[in-house]
Amino acid sequence: HVQLVESGGGSVQAGGSLRLSCAASGYTDSRYCMAWFRQAAGKEREGIAFIDDQGRTDYADSVKERFTISRDFNKNILTLEMNTLKPEDSAMYYCAATDYRFFGNCVLTPTLYKYWGQGTQVTVS
Fold first, then answer.
1. Looking at the chain, which terminus has fewer C-beta neighbours within 10 angstroms, N or C?
2. Residue 86 and residue 14 in contact, taking contact as beta carbons nearer than 8 Å
3. Which backbone phi and psi does 111 adopt, to 5 degrees?
């Protein structure tokens, strides 16, 4: 079993930056896909970035060029650097992990992720 704990959320003005962290513990496997999702009030959970065990990444179009996902395999920490934040980025942000691959690749489909953190709130005004 994997435990995930997010931190780093908060309130920021539009154009500002935040860094989210996710500490993984328990039975962590470096082969897991790790990802960040977000869910705004009244909206579906949205996948925004993943990183695999080779460091390959992919991003949702809405955050490309603004957000950067990274992973420290030694410390089991997942990070999301968020720059040029917009009010529409306001949401609860979750980190997640899974051993599922679609034809060998990580995906950003929430239902395919097995382990979830409790979330951290990001508010951009």
1. N
2. yes
3. -65, -15
Which tokens is 109 given? 């489909």
Cβ pair 117, 38 in contact under 8 A? no
SS3 assignment, position 87: helix
- Residue-level pLDDT at 83: 98
For residue 40, the model assigns a pLDDT of 97
Distance CA 65, CA 48 (A): 12
If residue 94 lies in a helix (H) or strand (E), which one and from where to where?
strand 91-98
Separation of alpha carbons 36 and 65, rounded Å = 16
pLDDT given for residue 28 in this prediction: 76
Residues facing 24 on adjacent strands: 4
Classify burial at 65, counting beta carbons within 10 Å of its beta carbon; exposed 0-12, middle 13-18, buried 19 or more.
exposed
**Unique residue bearing structure tokens 């309130």:** 11
